[in-house]
């Protein structure tokens, strides 16, 4: 589902304008980004949890040449589904 389809569907369900729903989604996303950056995690009720995690440096291979390369350490964001979502979908 694209963002445009999601906005249209939510606007219809809630009886709101597409502009209001789009603004809400933008503000909600920004709030989640700031919270993950600040505290390292953010719970999205009914969906799951975004968690900031650190990956260690490691060695990898260039698939074209087979040459060994070093992959540097970095910080990534992981999403963990809630039990409710798993039960509803799986």
What do these coordinates show?
The chain is built from 3 helices and 5 strands; from the N terminus they run ααβββββα. With 90 residues, it is α+β, with helices and mostly antiparallel strands. The chain has 2 domains: 1-39; 40-90, HU Protein, Chain A (Irregular), CATH 4.10.520. The strands form 2 sheets. The chain has a 3-stranded antiparallel beta sheet. Helix 1 packs across helix 2 (18-39). The longest helix is centred in the first third of the chain and has 22 residues, at 18-39. The radius of gyration is 19 Å and the shape is elongated. The relative contact order is 0.12. The model has no long low-confidence stretch (mean pLDDT 95).
Detail the topology: elements first, then pairings.
Blueprint: H1 3-14, H2 18-39, E1 41-44, E2 48-55, E3 58-61, E4 68-71, E5 74-81, H3 83-89
Antiparallel strand pairs: 1-2, 2-5, 3-4
Helix pairs in contact: 1-2
The total beta strand count reads: 5
Give the C-alpha Rg.
Answer: 19 Å
Measure the end-to-end span.
19 Å
- What is the C-level CATH assignment of the largest domain? Few Secondary Structures
The CATH architecture assignment of the largest domain turns out to be Irregular
Count of alpha and pi helical runs: 3
Succession of helices and strands: HHEEEEEH
- The largest sheet has its strands arranged as 1-2-5
Annotated CATH topology of the largest domain: HU Protein, Chain A
Question: What's the number of domains?
Answer: 2
């Amino acid at each position: 589902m694209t963002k445009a389809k999601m906005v249209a569907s939510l606007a219809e369900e809630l009886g709101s304008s597409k502009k209001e729903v789009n603004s809400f989604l933008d503000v909600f996303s920004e709030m989640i980004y700031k919270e993950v950056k600040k505290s390292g995690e953010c719970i999205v009720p009914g969906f799951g949890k975004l968690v900031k995690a650190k990956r260690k440096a490691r060695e990898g291979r260039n698939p074209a040449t087979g040459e060994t390369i070093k992959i540097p350490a970095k910080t990534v964001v992981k999403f963990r589904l809630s039990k409710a979502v798993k039960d509803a979908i799986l």
